[in-house]
Amino acid sequence: MIQEKKKAFNNFAVAKGLRSTRQRDIILDTFLSTNQHISVEELYLKIKSGNQGIGQATVYRTLKLFTEAGLAREILLNDGQTRYEHVIAGEHHDHLVCTGCNAIIEFEDETIEKLQKDIAARQGFHMRSHKLEIYGLCIKCRH
Amino acid sequence: MIQEKKKAFNNFAVAKGLRSTRQRDIILDTFLSTNQHISVEELYLKIKSGNQGIGQATVYRTLKLFTEAGLAREILLNDGQTRYEHVIAGEHHDHLVCTGCNAIIEFEDETIEKLQKDIAARQGFHMRSHKLEIYGLCIKCRH
DNA sequence: CATGTAATGAAAATGAATTTCAAAAGCAGA
DNA sequence: TCTGCTTTTGAAATTCATTTTCATTACATG
Ligand SMILES: [Mn+2]
Ligand SMILES: [Mn+2]
Ligand SMILES: [Zn+2]
Ligand SMILES: [Zn+2]
Questions:
Q1: Does B135 lie in the same domain as B69?
Q2: A140 with A127: CB under 8 angstroms?
Q3: Whose CA is closest to B75, among A119, A130, A78, A70?
Q4: Do A109 and A81 sit in the same domain of this protein?
Q5: Are A26 and A78 in the same domain?
Q6: Structural domain range at position A133
Q7: For chain A, how long is the longest CA-to-CA vector?
Q8: Looking at the complex, does the CB of residue B134 fall below 8 Å from at least one CB of chain A?
Q9: Residue A106's domain is classified under what CATH number?
C-alpha cells in the first residue's frame, strides 16, 4: 500500500518531468508513515527529528505536489494551520472535531451527501466540492 | 430593525461597561447598511470612502465586539479574508459558494441539520457548531 | 473642569505561507 | 566519467491578514 503510493507519486513525477530527489523521498516516506491530519509544521519537525535536514519551504512545496498527485488532501480547519491527510481512492469523508482536545473523527453520511447535491442542483449550481465540519466536545472533554 | 440592532449593541455595551464612541457608531451604522458577508477590508474601505477616518485596528476590534454582542457572525471561507454577516435571531443557514464569481447563496436544510446532530451524538460528541459549505459554479459561471 | 480609565490608531509585531535567488543536485548526452 | 543545462533546494526575505503595542485622545463621572 505504501509501495503503491510511492509508485503513484513516481508515475506523477515522471509524467510531469520532475526530478527524483532525496528530499522528496524523505518527505513522502515520512508523510506515509504518519497518521491522518498532520500539519506542515508537524511534518517538518518529524523529519527534522529524524535528523535529516530539509527546509520548510521544501516541505510546503512537496505537500502541494502530493496534493496535485492525488496522494494528499489539504484540510483547512480554521485554526490557522493547513493540515494534510492521506487520500484513499474512491473514499470520501467529513470531520467531527473536538474543540477540547483537537481530536478528529471521520465520518461519512450518504444522505447528507445526496442532500447537498440536491441543494446545489436546486440553485443551478454545479457542485465541485463541499466542506462539512462538526465541532463539539468529545466524551473525554465533556467534564 | 436597524434601530433594534443598535439598541441591542447599546445594551451589550452598557452591560460590559464599554464606552460609547464615534467610531463604534460609524462602524455599526456602516455594517448594518451592508449586504451579507462583507470582509473587514471591504468594511474599512467603505467607511474610509465616506471620508471618516477610522483605523483598521478599530474596525477589526469592533467587529469582534459585534460578534460577541450577537449582532455579527464570522464567516471563514479559507480565501484568507474573514467575512462577517448579520445575525438574525433564531435563524441558521449554511452557504453555497460560487468559485467563479464568489457569489454566496444561503440555504437551510432541516434534514441535514438533524443528521449532523445524530452523527455527533453517535460518537458521543456534544455538538457546538458546524460548518457546511458547498462549492461549485453558479449558472452564470458554467459557460 | 478635573481626574481616572477606556478607546483609538499608527506603526510594529506576528505567524503561516510564499517567493527569491545563489548554490547544489539531477539528468542527458558526449 | 565529464560537461552543460535545468530543476531543486533552503536560508532569508517577503507577503498579507490580523493582532499587539503604546502614546495620545476621548469618554464619563463627580
Ligand atoms: Mn480526514
Ligand atoms: Mn450567510
Ligand atoms: Zn476532546
Ligand atoms: Zn458564479
A1: no
A2: no
A3: A78
A4: no
A5: yes
A6: 94-142
A7: 54
A8: yes
A9: 3.30.1490.190
Regions of chain B short of the pLDDT cut 70:
none
What pLDDT digit, counting tens, does each position of A84-117 carry? Answer: 999 999 999 999 999 888 899 999 999 999 999 9
What pLDDT, on the 0 to 100 scale, is given for residue B75?
A: 97
Q: What is the whole-number distance in angstroms between the Cα of residue B136 and the centre of ligand 4?
A: 8
Distance in angstroms: CA B57, C1' D23: 16
Hey, what's the cell of B30? 456602516
| Shortest alpha-carbon distance between residue A113 and chain B (Å) | 9
Q: What letter does residue A18 receive in the DSSP assignment?
A: P
Q: What is the DSSP letter of B125?
A: -
Closest C-alpha among A55, A90, A92 to residue A75: A92
Residues A102 and A136 in one domain: yes
Q: Are residues B81 and B107 in the same domain?
A: no
The secondary structure element, H or E, covering residue B108 is none
Domain count within chain B: 2
Q: Helix (H, G, I), strand (E, B), or coil: what is residue B85?
A: strand
In a shared domain, residues B102 and B135: yes
pLDDT in tens, A65-77: 999 999 999 999 9
Beta-ladder partners of B136: A127, B98
Percent of chain A with pLDDT over 90: 87
